[in-house]
């Protein structure tokens, strides 16, 4: 007799949303939002002013936890360009979300400046439920709308010599008050290897909760790799550069003894100042055990074969 143990991301058929309901919801939302037949984003003049086009939720990625309430996820935010407190959501509304351009350059065959609306016509949007684990030992689950990073890279043609992707966040004087804190190495820089970028979990995020991504969460476009601590996710991206040099990331420059390049989640490797064994679920008093690679090990553990000498955690 064949005994089959389902993997963590596999969705039992009984739990899948019937196709008729999904397609019906899409019809209603498109009509309500007045979305053009091409299905391009109805992008807001100001944050939160319009809806995203309805997209299908990918059932392959299951958080195995409840979705965090939208109010919690959009009012408890780390975004140092707007301040070092969690209550930066109002200050972040000053960030102009349109027009927005993302430059992709470096070791690519076709370096390009993408107007965001044009970029979103060239990729396949979907919704994914991803966990986010902050290095500060709190977590949330968000329905992100976006597209695979690998789809973006295909549009520019990475060269064989490219080993890393460097992400650069906007730094707009007069809009981001945190930039006055000159002891920080602005702009905010993050990075990953080309192999990590090609992984199916690597996601470019343009929305949350069925709406355009608000500025306090990194709108209009950010990056997310759910197996890493949240500080690895570059917000409000303006540039991505493919390079053969490992980027020196923002928190590495500030405190290399506490924050490294890889920053994969591992409950058994503490931060120098606190344990990583468990996490506080945002919006509740619940505390749950943290999982290796934030529970996504089956997708990404193979990326780190042979790298045991690297500092892969925190």
Provide a concise account of the structure shown:
It is built from seven helices and twelve strands. With 314 residues, the protein is an alpha+beta fold.
Description of the structure:
- This protein has a single domain, classed as Oxidoreductase, molybdopterin-binding domain (Sulfite Oxidase, Chain A, domain 2).
- It contains seven helices and twelve strands.
- It is 15% helix and 21% strand.
- Strands 3, 4, 7, 8, 9, 11 and 12 form a seven-stranded mixed beta sheet that branches.
- The chain is an alpha+beta fold and 314 residues long.
- The model is unreliable at 1-49 (pLDDT under 50).
- The chain has helices at residues 19-33, 70-75, 116-120, 149-156, 194-198, 250-254, 297-300, and strands at residues 101-106, 112-115, 126-133, 138-148, 164-169, 189-193, 203-208, 211-212, 222-224, 237-243, 278-281, 287-289.
Task: Please describe the structure with a list of short key phrases separated by commas or semicolons.
alpha+beta; Sulfite Oxidase, Chain A, domain 2; 314 residues; 15% helix; disordered N terminus; 7-stranded mixed β-sheet
Largest sheet report: 7 strands, mixed
Q: How many helical stretches?
A: 7
**Taking Cα atoms only, what radius of gyration do you get, to the nearest Å?**
19 Å
Q: By CATH's scheme, which homologous superfamily applies? A: Oxidoreductase, molybdopterin-binding domain
Q: Strand content of the residues, in percent?
A: 15-25%
């Amino acid at each position: 007799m064949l005994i089959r143990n389902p993997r963590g991301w596999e969705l039992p058929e009984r739990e899948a949303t019937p196709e008729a309901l999904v397609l019906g919801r899409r019809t209603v939302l498109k009509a309500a939002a007045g979305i053009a037949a091409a299905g391009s984003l109805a992008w807001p003049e100001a944050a939160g002013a319009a809806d995203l086009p309805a997209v299908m939720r990918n059932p392959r990625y299951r958080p195995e936890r409840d979705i965090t309430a939208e109010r919690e996820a959009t009012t408890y935010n780390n975004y140092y360009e707007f301040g070092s407190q969690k209550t930066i959501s109002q200050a972040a509304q000053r960030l102009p979300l349109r027009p927005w351009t993302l430059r992709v350059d470096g070791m690519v065959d076709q370096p390009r400046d993408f107007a965001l609306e044009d970029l979103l016509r060239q990729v396949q949007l979907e919704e994914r439920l991803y966990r986010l684990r902050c290095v500060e030992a709190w977590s949330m689950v968000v329905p992100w709308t976006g597209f695979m990073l690998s789809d973006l890279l295909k549009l520019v043609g990475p060269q064989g010599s490219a080993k890393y992707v460097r992400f650069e966040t906007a730094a707009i004087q007069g809009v981001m008050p945190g930039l006055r804190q000159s002891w920080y190495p602005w702009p905010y820089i993050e990075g990953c290897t080309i192999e990590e970028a090609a992984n199916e979990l690597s996601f470019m995020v343009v929305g949350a909760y069925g709406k355009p991504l608000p500025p306090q969460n990194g709108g209009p476009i950010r990056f997310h790799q759910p197996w890493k601590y949240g500080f690895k996710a570059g917000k409000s991206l303006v540039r991505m550069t493919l390079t053969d040099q490992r980027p020196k990331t923002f928190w590495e420059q500030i405190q290399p003894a506490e924050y490294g390049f890889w920053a994969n989640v591992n409950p058994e490797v503490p931060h120098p100042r606190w344990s990583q064994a468990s996490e506080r679920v945002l919006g509740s008093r619940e505390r749950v055990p943290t999982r290796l690679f934030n529970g996504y090990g089956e997708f990404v553990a193979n990326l780190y074969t042979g790298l045991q000498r690297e500092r892969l955690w925190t």
